[in-house]
Amino acid sequence: KWTEYSLQAGDVLVQAFLRTPDKKLANKYLGVTSGYIDLYNKLIGPYPYTKFALVENFWETGYGMPSFTLLGQKVIRMPWILYSSYPHELLHNYWGNGVFVDYSQGNWCEGITVYMADHLLQEQRGSGASYRRTSLQKFTDYVNGENDFPVNKFLSRNNSAEEAVGYGKTMMINNMLRYEFGDKKFIEAYTKFYNDNKFRKATFGDIQKSFEAVNGKDLSAFFKQWVDRKGAPTIKLSDVEVKKKKKQYKLNFTLKQVQNEDVFDVNIPVVVYLKGESQVTNTKVTMNKREQAFSLTYDKKPVRIDIDPTFQIMRRLDRKEVPASLTQVFGEKQAVIILPGNSKHLDAYTSLAKMWQKTQQAQGKQLTVVTDNELSSVPTDKAVWILGFGNKFNGFVNISEKYSSALGTKKLVQIEKLKKEGALVYAVPNPNNTYKTVGFLGANNADAIKALSRKLLHYGKYGYLGFETEKATNVLKGSLPALNSPMNYIIDNKAEINAVIAPRKALSEAK
Ligand SMILES: [Zn+2]
């Protein structure tokens, strides 16, 4: 009934059982499977079974069981499964089926499986921060005083709130442990947890023990707060000022925890942009009061401060806290491309749209293509691409006007020039729904549009970009601040800010 394919990956026999023979598909799975087994061998420890089998299932549901995974015949052919639910199910051979869950103390295994599979794969593509942001956004949107519960009460997900706590919050607890102790110690602690508990029922308490042993630190307060207690802090930045003292600059600011629940004891990442520096400065402050004043000293003038801009800690987000980047437009599950119906470059824009549509579809996302004259307004319920300087929605968000102080005179002049003879790309929050991002791409040359259709995906972390010539050579790049966000503050409106926050290396690269 099934056709069997197999491959020996070290000590593990990797098998694929397909209902209809398909060597190409089987080889794809065998290849990535041995890749994942190799990754987790290095990251956690030896794979706990002697075989792993992928079985094509008659039903469309996916199951992970010790040493094999069932995938439906449609699902198995969707290319993004290889990088999302498939590695997740495979990793459950370690977390869940290698180390078992003692459900009486809460299900710890989904959070760490999400962290080491779904999150890790996003991180490898430079999208770790936006993955965490989405997760925190879900918690903010779905979890409230009535349905909130501590993660030690989580069993399995039956609704969005349970998922936001049992998967999302537990993933963030893991991220905080990593942020606190660093990649090496984080991996070491989980390797120890795996070795100590293999084929045994384990609890959050056992994870705590491993981290305590590896780091030589009592972590009962941390685990009590995040595992036994519900809720999350909501943080706001205020009273930012810089004072010059002799040759040094003092940056003073206040952080507040404004949630109804009790104060959380939390270490908060602070990113400071210094005048003339091409890299940002990272600091960590410890907060354990409702309201707390901080002071940091620098040799160069601080021009901007961001609080947890890469979403390292478990907290509720503010609606206005939306840093715009191209990744957000590309990353959205549903998006629409608006073509400029009357542009002389319509053909070039149409080919670009078709190419992106294919790429997005391959990742399970939906991208629809329309022309500007079919719409009376820019959609607010999905991500949007506005293409072409001739688009009737060009100017929907005028970045030169809205972000003039953040951009500075030199860049404003450059942007005007690019509008006439180059190419300009940017991403901004939709003014009518700041949860959604609007991307703009305009170019004065059909070849440049063609070049950008391939190039742009590699510039995801940026908020604005400029290109010149038909080859689309990059001449301008940077990120725009989230305006009115309670988590950042621009100290010097005139200072040019060139530094961008580089994404952290994926956990898999730490070893
Ligand atoms: Zn799972």
Major sheet details: 7 strands, mixed
Q: Compounds present? A: zinc ion
Overall shape: it is globular
- What fraction strand? 25-35%
CATH class of the largest domain: Alpha Beta
How many beta-strand runs? 21
Strand order of the largest sheet: 15-14-16-18-17-19-20
Return the CATH architecture of the largest domain. Answer: 2-Layer Sandwich
Report the uncertain regions. none
State the oligomer.
Answer: single chain
Annotated CATH topology of the largest domain: Chitobiase, domain 2
Give the termini separation.
42 Å
Could you please describe the fold and organization of this structure?
The protein has 511 residues and is of the alpha/beta class. The protein has four domains: 3-78, Zincin-like, CATH 3.30.2010; 100-228, Neutral Protease, domain 2 (Orthogonal Bundle); 235-320 and 499-509, Immunoglobulin-like, CATH 2.60.40; 326-480, Chitobiase, domain 2. The protein has twelve helices and 21 strands. The chain has helices at 23-43, 85-91, 109-124, 128-142, 160-197, 204-215, 220-228, 326-331, 346-362, 399-402, 404-421, 446-455, and strands at 3-9, 12-18, 51-57, 63-65, 68-72, 100-101, 201-202, 235-245, 248-257, 266-274, 281-287, 291-298, 302-307, 334-339, 366-371, 383-387, 423-430, 433-443, 464-468, 473-478, 488-490. A seven-stranded mixed β-sheet has the order 15-14-16-18-17-19-20, with helices on both faces. A five-stranded mixed β-sheet has the order 1-2-3-5-4, with helices on one face. α3 packs across α4 (128-142) and α9 packs parallel to α12 (446-455). The longest helix has 38 residues, at 160-197. The two termini are 42 Å apart. The model has no long low-confidence stretch (mean pLDDT 92). It binds zinc ion. The site of zinc ion has 4 residues, from α3.
